[in-house]
Design goal:
Elements: H1 3-13, H2 20-30, H3 33-40, H4 49-61, E1 65-68, E2 87-92, E3 102-107, H5 113-128, E4 132-135, H6 141-155, E5 159-162, H7 176-185, E6 187-190, H8 202-213, E7 216-220, H9 227-237, E8 241-244, H10 255-262, E9 266-267, H11 271-281, E10 304-305, E11 308-309, H12 314-318, E12 332-333, H13 334-341, H14 345-358, E13 361-364, E14 368-371, H15 372-378
Parallel strand pairs: 3-4, 3-7, 4-5, 5-6, 7-8, 8-9
Antiparallel strand pairs: 1-2, 2-6, 10-11, 12-14, 13-14
Helix pairs in contact: 1-3, 1-4, 2-3, 5-6, 5-11, 6-7, 8-9
Length: 379
């Protein structure tokens, strides 16, 4: 695609009210993005040409590649979506975007230590078996999966992170180091314009791309209201295999996974369960992918079990209890929750925001926090 045409596409998709579906309808109606812009200019304000050109300049400065639908490196799997992003932003390796054997791993942000350990171990083993792990770089299971993949192949493993922010925005901030390592060894992908900050509506949109890239999706720890189940549902709609790690019926973080298994997901205890299923359902031989030609920084060497790094965050040393375990059925004032959590206010507020994005908690009166299902029962 020529630079002028790419600028047209960037300008059109970033115009208010233009999503992927309408974008393609306009192309069908007017033939090109340039003609679509001409038709729209009398009806509404456009994303400016100057801003679109600056987006291209900024991407070049940040070593971000902008790939349009139809270009050689555009993920073929995205073409199956009726709302495939017209342009995607990539930091890192574009050569792995069309690798034929990928599995997405998703799960709870407030994951247990055991949940993170399982996600990391399975990601490590999948990577060693020539599967690329895809996830969303969120706190908890996502981060653990990325770390396990990066630690494989003698710490030269690769992985793909699909973001709900601009590709130049590491979110959450605590994953900045992980973000940099994924950029170096794998790829970070986003459909959102550079500089886009976290917004609740963007994460479900991100999830469809996580599942679309993959042959199957594994869920490790998820409540019944978890955003991870949205990813699983999208994967199912896309005809992908669904895998779930079972858990105790007494643990709320296992309820979503247990429900998926009841609904027909593959019960998964190891990477071998996934590999055996993919070999059967995909009926194809897995091909090796090229290893990176750089030395990766070691990943938490002191925090590992069986040579797999545990996704143990600093907060674990302060309080072993997730925030959800500190919220009673009657709700709790946010100030009191911060005190009970025993960590700095900014970190606790970030975790509360994550739980709100997942639909696990909600506020009442601005300062009282409820677990969503508990508030419904109370009312």
């Amino acid at each position: 695609m020529t630079e002028d045409k790419l600028i047209d596409w960037i300008q059109l998709i970033n115009t208010d009210g233009i999503g992927p579906v309408r974008f393609y309808k306009l192309l069908e109606q007017y033939g090109t993005a340039a003609e679509s812009l001409k038709a729209l200019v009398a009806k509404q304000a456009l994303f400016s040409r100057k801003s679109a050109e600056y987006e291209l300049e900024k991407a070049a400065r940040l070593q971000v590649k902008i790939i349009a639908k139809g270009d050689e490196n555009y993920p073929e799997n995205f073409n199956q979506l009726n709302d495939a992003p017209p342009v995607i932003y990539i930091r890192g390796r574009t050569d792995i975007l069309n690798y034929p054997a990928m599995v997405s791993i998703v799960g709870a942000r407030n994951a247990s230590v055991n949940g993170r350990k399982i996600a990391s171990k399975i990601a490590y083993d999948l990577t060693e078996s020539e599967i690329i792990v895809v996830s969303g770089m969120a706190r908890g299971i996502d981060a653990a999966a990325h770390k396990g993949a990066l630690f494989a192949k003698k710490e030269h493993g690769t992985t793909i992170a699909v973001l709900g922010t601009g590709v130049d925005v590491a979110y959450p901030k605590e994953n900045q180091g992980l973000y940099e390592q994924i950029c170096a060894q794998g790829a970070v992908v986003s459909e959102f314009a550079l500089g886009t900050q976290p917004q609740a509506a963007n994460f479900p949109r991100r999830n469809r791309l996580v599942s679309a890239l993959s042959a199957g999706t594994l869920v490790v720890e998820a409540s019944l209201n978890s955003g991870s189940l949205i990813t699983a549902r999208m994967a199912l709609e896309q005809g992908k295999d669904i895998f779930a790690v079972p858990g105790s019926p007494l643990e709320g973080r296992s309820a979503g996974c247990n429900q998926l298994i009841r609904d027909g997901a593959y019960l998964t205890e190891s990477a071998e369960d996934i590999l055996n299923t993919l070999a059967f359902t995909q009926n194809r031989q897995i091909k090796a992918f090229a290893e990176v030609d750089l030395f990766a920084n070691p990943l938490d060497k002191e925090q590992k079990s069986d040579n797999i790094p545990l996704q143990t965050e600093k907060a674990d040393a302060v309080s072993d209890l997730p925030l959800t375990d500190l919220i009673p059925a009657t709700g709790i004032e946010i100030d009191e929750l911060i005190r009970l959590a025993g960590q700095d206010t900014a970190r606790t507020m970030m975790q509360i925001t994550e739980l709100e994005l997942e639909g696990i908690v909600e506020r009442s009166g601005g300062s009282t926090l409820f677990l969503k299902n508990q508030k419904n029962r109370k009312n």
